[in-house]
Design a protein that fits this description.
Order of helices and strands: EEEEEEH
Shape: globular
Number of strands: 6
Strand content: 25-35%
Radius of gyration: 13 Å
Largest sheet: 4 strands, antiparallel
Length: about 110
Amino acid sequence: MESKRFQKNDSGFVCTSCGKKVPPNEVTSRDHCPFCLTSLHVDLCPGDRANPCKGRLIPIRTEPHPKKGFVIYYKCEKCNARVSNKAAMNGVCPDDTDLLIRLTANTEDI
């Protein structure tokens, strides 16, 4: 039997970058800080927390998307992987819209 690709994992956490307490999203899985947008490289498939890297994912750029709102592009500090994720625009404590907009001006390659 094949497992689901997406696993809901909506735990709150303390951000490893800014130190703020991040509440669960309650709409979907919370996987990045809504205050500084930093994440951890912990998933192989969304929500599984099975990635052995565990490095910090630094937001390097965002792009507006007509259906997803904003997409955040990350670079892992530990393994240099490049990953992306949809911004959390709804739910408890949505992402900082001003920061999302500022990151659209970043020209670093994705």
